[in-house]
């Protein structure tokens, strides 16, 4: 049943029986329940992803066959990735589920004609609530006859001034009563209330994947498709040749290991480290991928009140218009501000800027938004401070219109200070209501929103870096435009929310693209503005502090909240500025660019390894020389790729995001994998044929035979021993060559000197070269340690291996240097003119 303001029951409220009946009908003010994803769904989607399911099946088969090391190598990183992702998403869910816009304090309702204190959940539709200063409004509904309520809706709408609501006008749940009082009819309760709708919207999980995550996802999916096709072909051949089940499972494990799932782990680690560094500089990263996402931002939309400003006022000008001089007026204003018993933003600003001493007050009329003036009576007379239009009917002398209009046009808040023409004038009428006496103007006072001290420098840094800034506020457009100019922005003509309402999406897009300042903007319009910019291909960050900003923050690629803002806004934000300073955005942006640069380099290393192994497997299989890898040998990538990329990511220097990242990747990766695979196949084929021929002879030393029996697990008297021995020996030579090549490949990406500067120029950082030297020494030493070689399925170091591997590495270096230096691949394919062709050579000079 509909509840109307004229409902007779609204005068005395409901009875307890009526309230119980309505509660049973579902008309109670029940808080909204959790709406984000369940724990079970989070675990299921992260643990049982498509890729992890493949790994689990392979791992289970290897465990059944007793190949424990192989099983661990195959599924370890996949489980780590799933755990990291699940933990992060569960943390985000718990935070979203805790969101609550309304406090949990009791409220006063009329029941059975008496005032009764009840919990918010016990309020029902049709109840009459008493609203007094300091109370939070907990339901939506109109003010009843006789009430006049001043409410602070700044967290809901962005309007910084208190709003007066009279009989029949709605109070919104989530606002605060700051003056006046009255009765409110509960019309919209529970999930239908404004606060509940905002809470539900804020709780929705809405994490954007970043450009880097999408590129990595594309690369991994592409590799998975190629691996699937290659696996089908090789396993079909295995079936035709009668391979054992163990061999088939091992082969599948090796092929699945080609998928560079270590990239996901690397990204998770890089994000975590970057988040820690950004947090130390005042930008608390709550959604880990935001540390990279912020580096892609090319437009920042920011609220005004509490974001660009401190939420306080500052004195801009005192302009005398009466008989007193400037010094006397300033002394008088300072004393007036210090004498007010109910301090507000205006009195605080005047007291901070002007001299004065407190007076003994005989009578006071506090400021209220309904009166729009305040007054004090002292022994020396009556002083009044108020809005020009509110005082104008009682002011003597020439109109102040020109002065007031000029200051208002600058976006300043303008007040007039005046004194009563008769010092004994009364401030109240016969009924006790406040009344203005005849006044003599003394001065016009201009106040400005206090800009945060670091804002101009930060906005200048953002615009200098190519990031556009748009100020979006619920305040008066003139005030917002003036503040934008004060902050150093060329605001142009501001646009109001009413101007936007009638626009089509195309018209809205045009206005959003060219406008810098937006005033009187509702929360829905902020969200629409962000959506418009995203539709135009912009990468958007939204900065805000109030509940009215929450929807726009969630809609943006990166939501940024101020620490002093509302709890809801902080909880939905990707980044919280812990010092309430926009300055922290610039270091966060640089940290994100450093991560992109590092992961881009790491992707080159990863994909070169994947491409090399894939080509080697195809070539060796086609030659009929056995299978070139075991799952344990694939585990060497932890040393040759995993460890180096961690350091390369940590040591990376900031660089603007490369729009041609995938193009740059293949220009580096294709020559590296082709040249390395060619050398690896040659090494493998040479050792395989030599060993197969050698074991077919009768003069093989006994210790060699016994060693290979231990390596292969096959007796020398069994059929197939020679093939097994030749395979593991050739695998050792191949793994040795490819591992050294992987180490040296780092020097092409981070050249210590001109000798290696065929792909890119040296950047002066010698740490990668030191890392390569350490890895080469560690790997070489490991080849002489049985525990190392046994774990990775290799034979111990032997002279023939080094006699072939070292010359092959020299040839490999020469060929790859020529391929990069002379861009042989691009020239051969006629692609040297495409975008990104020269990106690699200029990369070290960026950042």
Structure report:
Helix content is 51%, strand content 13%. By secondary structure, it is of the alpha/beta class. It has 5 domains: 9-29 and 105-198, Calcium-transporting ATPase, cytoplasmic transduction domain A (Distorted Sandwich), CATH 2.70.150.10; 39-97; 211-271 and 590-845, Calcium-transporting ATPase, transmembrane domain; 283-308 and 454-580, HAD superfamily/HAD-like (Rossmann fold, 3-Layer(aba) Sandwich), CATH 3.40.50; 312-449, Calcium-transporting ATPase, cytoplasmic domain N (3-Layer(aba) Sandwich), CATH 3.40.1110. The chain has an 8-stranded mixed sheet with strand order 9-22-21-20-10-17-19-18, sandwiched between helices. Helix 12 packs across helix 13.
Helix percentage: 40-55%
The second-level CATH architecture of the largest domain is Up-down Bundle
User: Given the C-alpha coordinates, what overall shape results?
Assistant: elongated
Largest sheet: 8 strands, mixed
Number of strands: 22
State mean pLDDT (0 to 100 scale): 82
Percent range for β-strand residues: 5-15%
Low-confidence residue ranges = 1-10, 839-847
How many independent structural domains? Answer: 5
**Sheet with most strands: strand arrangement:** 9-22-21-20-10-17-19-18
CATH topological fold name of the largest domain? Calcium-transporting ATPase, transmembrane domain
Determine the CATH superfamily of the largest domain.
Answer: Calcium-transporting ATPase, transmembrane domain
C-alpha termini separation: 65 Å
Count of DSSP H/I helices: 33
The gyration radius over C-alpha positions equals 37 Å
From the helix content, strand content and strand pairing, which structural class follows?
alpha/beta
CATH class of the largest domain reads Mainly Alpha
């Amino acid at each position: 049943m509909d509840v109307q303001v004229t409902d007779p029951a609204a005068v005395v409220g409901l009875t307890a029986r009526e309230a119980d009946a309505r509660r049973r009908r579902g008309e109670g003010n029940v808080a909204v329940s959790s709406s984000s994803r369940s724990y079970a769904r989070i675990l299921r989607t992260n643990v049982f992803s498509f890729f992890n399911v493949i790994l689990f099946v392979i791992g289970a088969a290897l465990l059944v066959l007793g190949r424990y090391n192989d099983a661990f190598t195959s599924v370890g990183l996949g489980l780590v990735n799933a755990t990291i992702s699940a933990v992060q998403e569960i943390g985000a869910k718990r935070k979203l589920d805790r969101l609550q816009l309304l406090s949990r304090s009791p409220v006063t309702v009329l029941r059975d004609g008496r005032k009764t204190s009840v919990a918010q959940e016990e309020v029902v539709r049709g109840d009459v609530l008493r609203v007094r200063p300091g109370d939070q409004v907990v339901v939506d509904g109109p003010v009843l006859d006789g009430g006049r309520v001043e409410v602070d809706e700044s967290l809901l709408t962005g309007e910084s001034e208190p709003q007066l609501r009279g009989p029949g006008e709605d109070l919104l749940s989530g606002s605060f009563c700051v003056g006046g009082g009255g009765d409110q009819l509960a019309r919209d309760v529970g999930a239908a209330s404004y606060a509940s709708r905002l809470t539900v919207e804020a709780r929705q999980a809405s994490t954007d994947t970043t450009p880097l995550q999408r590129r990595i996802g594309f690369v991994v999916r592409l590799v998975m498709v190629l691996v699937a096709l290659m696996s089908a072909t090789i396993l079909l051949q295995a079936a035709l040749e009668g391979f054992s089940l163990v061999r088939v499972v091992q082969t599948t494990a090796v092929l699945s290991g080609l998928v560079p799932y270590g990239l996901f782990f690397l990204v998770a680690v890089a994000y975590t480290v970057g988040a820690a560094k950004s947090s130390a500089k005042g930008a608390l990263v709550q959604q880990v991928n935001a540390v990279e996402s912020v580096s892609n931002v090319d437009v920042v939309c920011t609220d005004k009140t509490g974001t660009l400003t401190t939420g306080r006022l500052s004195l801009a000008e005192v302009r005398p218009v009466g008989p007193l001089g400037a010094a006397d007026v300033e002394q008088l204003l300072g004393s007036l501000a210090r004498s007010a018993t109910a301090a507000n933003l205006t009195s605080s600003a005047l007291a901070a800027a002007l001299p004065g001493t407190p007076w003994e007050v005989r009578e006071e009329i506090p400021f209220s938004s309904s009166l729009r003036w305040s007054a004090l009576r002292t022994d020396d007379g009556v002083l009044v401070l108020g809005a020009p239009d509110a005082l104008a009917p009682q002011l003597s002398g020439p109109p102040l219109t020109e002065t007031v209009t000029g200051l208002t046009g600058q976006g300043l808040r303008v007040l007039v200070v005046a004194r009563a023409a008769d010092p004994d004038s009364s401030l109240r009428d016969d009924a006790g209501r406040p009344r203005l006496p005849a006044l003599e103007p003394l001065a016009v006072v201009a106040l400005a929103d206090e800009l945060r001290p670091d804002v101009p420098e930060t906005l200048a840094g953002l615009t200098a870096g190519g990031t556009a800034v748009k100020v979006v506020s619920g305040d008066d457009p003139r005030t917002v435009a003036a503040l934008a100019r004060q902050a150093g922005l060329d605001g142009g003509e501001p646009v109001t929310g009413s101007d936007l309402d009638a626009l089509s999406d195309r018209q809205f897009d045009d206005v959003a693209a060219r406008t810098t300042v937006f005033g009187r903007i509702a929360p829905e319009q902020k969200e629409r503005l962000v959506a418009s910019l995203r539709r135009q291909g912009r990468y958007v960050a939204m900065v805000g502090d109030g509940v009215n900003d929450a929807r726009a923050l969630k809609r943006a690629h990166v939501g940024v909240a101020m620490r002093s803002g509302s709890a809801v806004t902080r909880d939905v934000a990707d980044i919280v500025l812990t010092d309430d300073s926009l300055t922290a955005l610039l270091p966060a942006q640089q940290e994100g660019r450093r991560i992109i640069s590092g992961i881009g380099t790491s992707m080159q290393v990863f994909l070169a390894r994947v491409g090399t192994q894939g080509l080697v497997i195809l070539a060796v299989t086609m030659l009929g020389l056995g299978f070139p890898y075991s799952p344990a040998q694939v585990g060497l990538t932890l040393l040759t790729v995993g460890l180096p990329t961690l350091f390369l990511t940590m040591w990376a220097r900031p660089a603007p995001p490369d729009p041609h990242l995938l193009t740059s990747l293949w220009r580096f990766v294709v020559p590296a994998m082709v040249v390395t695979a060619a050398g690896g196949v040659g090494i493998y084929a040479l050792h395989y044929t030599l060993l197969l021929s050698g074991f077919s002879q009768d003069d093989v030393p006994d210790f060699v035979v016994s060693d290979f029996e231990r390596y292969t697990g096959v007796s020398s008297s069994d059929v197939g021993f020679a093939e097994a021995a030749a395979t593991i020996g050739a695998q050792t030579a191949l793994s040795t060559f490819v591992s050294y090549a992987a180490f040296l490949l780092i020097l092409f990406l981070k050249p210590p000197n001109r000798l290696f500067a065929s792909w890119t120029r040296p950047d002066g950082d010698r740490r990668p070269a030191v890392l390569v030297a350490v890895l080469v020494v560690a790997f070489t030493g490991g080849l002489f340690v049985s525990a190392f070689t046994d774990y990775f399925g290799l034979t111990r170091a032997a002279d023939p291996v080094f006699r072939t591997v070292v010359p092959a590495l020299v040839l490999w270096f020469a060929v790859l240097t020529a391929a990069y230096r002379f861009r042989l691949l691009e020239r051969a394919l006629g692609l040297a003119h495409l975008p990104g062709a020269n990106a690699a050579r200029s990369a070290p000079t960026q950042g």
